[in-house]
Amino acid sequence: MILHRLRSRVEILSALIVPAIIFFTALYSMAADVTLAWDANDPEPEGYRVFVRESGASYNYANPIWESDAASETTCTLIGLTEGTTYYFVVRAYEGDLESADSEEVSYTPAAAAVNQAPVAEAGGSQSVYEEAAITLDGSASSDADGSIASYLWAQTGGTAVALSSAATAQASFTAPIVDLAGETLTFSLTVTDDEGESDTDTVTVSVLKSSSTDVDGDNVPDVLDLFPNDPAEWADNDGDGIGDNADTDDDNDGMSDTWEENYGLDPLTDDADLDADGDGVTNLDEYSADSDPTTVPGNTAPDAPTIEEVSPAETVSLTPVLVTAAYFDADNDAHFKSQWQISTDSDFATLILDKTSKVQLTAYEVGKMVLDVDTVYYWRVRFIDTDNGVSEWSETATFTTIAPETAGDADLDGIPDSQEVDAAADVNEDGVADSLEGDIMSLNTVEGQTMVGVEPSSDGITLVSVESIASDTISDPSVKMGFGLIGFRLYLADGVTTATVKISFNTRVPADAQLYKYTEENGWQVYANAVFAANRKSVTLLLEDGGAGDEDGVVNGVIVDPSGVSSSTVANEDSASLSTGDTSSSGGGGGGGCFISSTLVSTDGSTPEIKQIWLQFRQTIERFWAAMIRWSAAN
């Protein structure tokens, strides 16, 4: 209420009127009402009159706006004033026909009625989450500039229906639904209402991604890689005939049973019916029909057993030694077709650490990254196979001892190279917990591309024991580039577990057309068949089989070793130019923004490029030279 007080001097109009001071007060009570008050005159008059005018007008003294009936009335309330109009007031005392002069003039402008401002709804920022995650929708940033928010109301407007909890509060919650591989977007609206009844609405989206760990049927294969997500007995279908590989007796649909192919060393996952494994002019399928041996040519003379170019047993070697033999010899002059290499921690080879048969590494075999442990004695042997599939006797057994942990670069024995350790606060998988505080993830800095990568098992019965970032220039095929080199890891599998699912997370998004590639000396670069990238392109989940594709050691031994890398089918022009000249250097781009492999340089049939053949032959020559030098040095 606004108070106005006026003063005026009352003129002496008769002997009964004494000069006095009159006070005038205006009280604002409502938007267009005013209350006036003044001090009583002395001597007391008959009464008082109030006059009003607007700007530019004069007082009409013949028509007061208010008149008292008694001298005791020194206040009045005027109503019906127009909001926003300025009024001027004076008061006069009167006695009969006599009237004093005006009091001091005061003015008053009734304020315009305040217009309520609508509230502002803030539903929060968009979210990307994994299925079955607990999600909170936060509208607490909503506001009302001239009052308060009286109510909140959340509602789902799109996507798979979810059960909203606390939908009438600032923060609602729900559990993200299970989605398919493509993921799904859910939409929600928030309506807020203020204390004057005005409301506002805002919307928010929640993108639900397929989790790498969701396994509806409990077969230890996450749904992202399970072709039969509701059948715990099946997860793969190699020939795409709708029958899972576990129930299918012919997984490659080539007319020959898997059991028969496995018995004779053929590949049960590749259609090789029209091939002739032993070169006798009879196809494998015909051999199957005749129940004959498809791998042996009658009368063939097997090659001589290999002679090992043995390194002194007392000498320690790196974790990627090259095993070397003397030259191949076959009495009936059959060409050298393959060599089978084995490494064991037992002299009787009861437990195999590596068992690889190679058509490329014939007399020199480079052991792959992460296959061997530090400070361990190993035994190795090799045998030759000719073009008629004649198999030699095993070579003599040779031994070597690997280097100590500190020499290998992992002095703290945590499974991560010391030079690649990440900061203790790093959270590569973005689950809100530092990787160093989680027991199932190992994170590292890559040696190329300035990227952080985390590796973690996504299925049960798996223990991750080591990870390593591997430079691209360690690969014998220099015709390709990777975004941040290769990522290798080593897994131990519990008894009875033969498959493993692993999630590899990146602290940067990979290109939309990027794929996971694996390199082997036998087949060159190949795309991983069982790998699925998350919708946000910041992780990839892959399914591995002990001794199968992706397992570097090539043997079912409860250990899976896998080096692989992310590559893209699109590279910049300057990268293509450097590839054509054999440049294998990585780009220095930060955050994994480096160059990616050009698919035009990968043969579709998996054949080895000629440059790799030349390089390998050169390296084998060098290895033989150094082996000879070692023997000469020991003898002298």
UniProtKB/TrEMBL annotation:
Mind telling me which InterPro entries this protein's record contains? Choice_anch_U_dom, FN3_dom, FN3_sf, Ig-like_fold, KIAA0319-like, PKD/Chitinase_dom, PKD_dom_sf, TSP_type-3_rpt
- Lineage top rank: taxon: Bacteria
Q: Which residues cross the membrane?
A: 12-31
**GO CC term, one of those recorded:** cytoplasmic vesicle
Q: Where is the composition biased (Polar residues)?
A: 566-575
Please name the Pfam families in this protein's record: fn3, K319L-like_PKD
**SMART domains in the cross-refs:** PKD (SM00089)
Q: Which UniProt keywords apply?
A: Membrane, Transmembrane, Transmembrane helix
| One function term, GO molecular function aspect | calcium ion binding
Q: Which Gene3D superfamilies match?
A: Immunoglobulins
Q: Bias regions of kind Low complexity — which residues? A: 576-586
Comp. bias (Acidic residues): 234-261, 269-279
Query: Fibronectin type-III domain: which residues?
Result: 18-113
Q: Which SUPFAM superfamilies has this protein been placed in?
A: Fibronectin type III (SSF49265), PKD domain (SSF49299), TSP type-3 repeat (SSF103647)
Q: Is Chaperone a UniProt keyword of this protein?
A: no
* Region of interest (Disordered), residue spans: 230-307, 566-591
Q: What is this protein called?
A: Fibronectin type-III domain-containing protein
Organism listed in the record: Desulfosarcina widdelii
